[in-house]
Amino acid sequence: MPFLSRARKVDLITLAEELGLTVEPNAKISDLLRLITNDKNYDDDFTKDCLEVISNERKEEEQRRDEHEKREWEYELKKLELESKATLSDGNVPITVPKLNLMKLMPPKAINLDEVDLSHITDQDIKHNLKQVLDTYTPQKRKTTDVMMKIVLTDESPIHSKPRRLAANEKTFVDSQIQHWLDAGIIKES
Description:
Keywords: Coiled coil. There is one protein chain. The chain is mainly alpha-helical. It has 7 helices and 2 strands, in the order H-H-H-H-E-H-H-E-H. It has a two-stranded antiparallel ribbon. Helix 2 packs parallel to helix 3 and helix 2 packs across helix 4. The model has no long low-confidence stretch (mean pLDDT about 80).
């Protein structure tokens, strides 16, 4: 009987219906426990096994539902990625790089001379000059500007045009031009 008191209400309702008992829609857990245990055909082991099967089925269904929602979410994410790639390949895409304030990312900090190891410098003049620079160093704010880039994904004039039939005089001109390019080494026969 203690296994019944640990069961969920949904599982108890399903168990009562499986046992052929009539469950009121607004029944409480205590009512369900009384209804199941007071049944004339109540068997402790059978009820325990049935409740375990019902509970496992509910958990499996919840897991399937969660996996289905996860697959749908991944599908939508993949769809958005493909759509964004398609819009990028449509033509000229201006891209604005956001302004990063490095002073906020890396706040100014005075250099502590005790933290700097200068033992590897053998020349005393250079070591002395470096110590002076480190002592007098103060970080300064710099002016920044936004960077605007334009990525051209398609050419203004197409490299390839649709094939078409040429008139006889046009064909002669095109053939002579191609022969000239072949002779000059501009193009090669394929």
